[in-house]
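Minutes, methods subgroup
Present: GH (chair), OT, SY

1. OT presented the first of two proteins processed in the latest run. Sequence and structure tokens recorded below as shown on screen.
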Amino acid sequence: MKFSTRVDKNIPAAELFDAVANFDRIEHMLIRRGVSVTRGDDMPDGTRGWNLGFDWRGQRRELHLVLVQFDRPEKYAMTGESKPFELRIDMTAVALARDRSRLIFELEVKPRNMRARLILQTAKLGKTQIDRKLSARVAQFVDDAMAG
């Protein structure tokens, strides 16, 4: 299942990219929201990764994220894995004008088991509402990333 949204800002694209690619700031934002963050920088292939732990709907969830693409000042991508899902996050900063840019956020979620497949089938019924919530959350994330 794929989700995408875009956020327009009145700053240069390189500045927008630097704000959303500041991983130290993002880690602190997650920690303030109660997420346990452990870096996995010492991976054998030199890839940057994180292990995240958080409570969602009354259960502890674990997510492992790996940075798989980093093309400054345009795009970065992460892949993630939890017990029920695989995911890919792409963030692309596009210049609309000299001092105006757009962040394109794309999220693809794939099930890893039958229960996850059923969850995604149910989510498809409310995709419009999920898209609205995702757009609001990504816009808030961009604002928070630029504020620090």
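2. SY then presented the second protein from the same run.
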Amino acid sequence: MTPQDYLEIDRQLTDEERLIKETVGRYVNERYLPGIAEHFENGTFDRSVPEALGQLGVLGMHLTGYGCAGSSAVAYGVACMELEAGDSALRSFCSVQGSLAMFAIWKWGSEEQKQRWLPGMAKGELVGCFGLTEPDSGSDPGSMRTTARRDGDDWILNGSKMWITSGSIADVAVVWARTDDGVQGFLVEPGMEGFTAPEMHGKLSLRASVTSELAFDDVRLPDANRLPEVQSLKGPLSCLNEARYGIVWGVIGAARACFEAALDYSMTRQQFDQPIASFQLTQAKLADMATKVQQGYLLALHLGRLKDEGRLQPEQVSMGKRANVRAALEVAHTARSVLGANGITLEYPVLRHANNLESVFTYEGTDEIHTLSIGMALTGIAAFR
């Protein structure tokens, strides 16, 4: 038993899952964390990340074929947990690449599209992004204004997308648009006339991640760039459910990192001639944080086992995302109070994680929308409108 794994949950993992957890954690500690404070402060993305994660085999690791590992849902989950213990930007890149862009192509694309994009994306040689959210359409994707209309054998795409992770560095953008036949996905590539992807600046959260706008002004696309296997909101929503599952795990990594920082600090910080860890109020905070981390880990593991059994429902993912993000934010805020003024500096990871978690609280479905999804599952009554 250790403070970091107080309930010995790691023992519930298979040997392969533990190996993945250890391997990804080693990469984060040895190669990613030394530079994250500088990247966060400067608002820059570590450009070594795509290739490094490709070498680790975590990009699209839960998919099968095309260079993907075909790992279990739990294995993917523990990888997300270790990545977000480094920074939410790191897990977000992996999630957008594998659970959104790659999954969309893998699930809804043609064989030619899969062969063209997935192997390179799995290696980190090609970067993808996922365009669904719009400036005026977030929680209600059915109200999207981006459109694609037929023009002979081509499509003409118009509209814009907002808050797109990796948009400015992507080799391919999976873009969802309204058509006469329903919502469809299109593969948009840099250099196509009328397509721009300006990077967004001024963020106080996810600063080590590339966030962009996507704009389409009469972008002409061949029909070969249309995802042929879906013509409804089922397409993008299926991708979002994959990404939300990764968040259930990831935020527990961030929470654990905050707890560890607070625990270590409390053992060495002296006040009134003794470490602050000896004070009852500090110990109460540490006990609360440890409990939330362990509860979140158990919830994520349970949902992962359900997913591997093919039984996981979207509303269960909503419950996991809602509960674990809330818990992670509480842990981050409590950890900040233990560290006092030092907690607001980049010398420690706590406020960096807290700022990132404010974004995670909102993206891939807001806390309010997940609350209503659970409510609808419990009552059979939709309260969205």
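Chair's summary of item 2: The chain is about 50% helix and 15% strand.
Next meeting: continue with the remaining queue.
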